[in-house]
Amino acid sequence: MRPPRAYATIRAVMAPHDFRRARELFFLCALFLSAAEGCATPTVQILPTPAAAPQTPANIVVADAPTPRAPSIPIQPTPPPPAPPSFFEERVANLFDLARLPVMEQTVTTQFTSRNWFHREHFFDFFIDDGNFEGDKYGWVDENGARQSYRIVTADDGKPEYEIVPRSAGPGYIARIWFAQYQHQSYNNPTDKSKDPEWANWGNLGEVGNIRFYFDDEPTPRVDFSIKDLFVGKNSFPAPLAAFYASANGGNINYVPIPFQKALRIATTGKPRLMQIQIKRFADSNPALASVTGAP
Question: N or C terminus of the chain with fewer C-beta within 10 Å?
Fold first, then answer.
């Protein structure tokens, strides 16, 4: 507001007796305003806030998120390779795995039997007495093709025993054992024994007594027990690898492989009648093969 216009306006609206005082006050204000206009007043420039750039997918910056981690799975150690089959497992598998039938075993086989060399039936009178057992009518064929006879020897207890397998060099194993003593009704035994459990179940095999296994040229048998324990289907000779007369169609059989390292000899305390024992000797040394360590 300029002073002259302001002065005329104040004079028109104020009373005369106040006019003098107001005029003085007005001139003081005018002087003050004139002085103020002559001074440089600093100004503060407020700059406008720049508009934010539009956010588009191209310029949006996303903070790096932590890489997710897979759940921790404990590392299992690599299992060791399976152990090779034992001698027992391998030989038993050979009994039922037809794919192994043509595989050469690299063994030399000798079979000890109650075969009669002279009679047409070969098993006519069996070992009916000690003379027949030790005589030239019966025996086995050795590895050189020669006939050999059985012996009655004196055991370490001073009693006679029937040596049904003479010393056989190892390493090797017994592959099969078959015994038959009597039929409960036959030409040689006309009396019907079917009511007698010993005859009906065993064909009276018990009269053979004990069977003894001598390993590695030891003077005493390492295995010595009733011959029936070989076929009853228990202990170390389980069914169906072993079976007795009544369950095996008239024979006592055992297919459990019995290994030996250096040598083997077998005898019975009583006289057998019908038998087949198959021994297999390895053509090459087999240091991993150990003899049976004790009775079943």
Answer: N
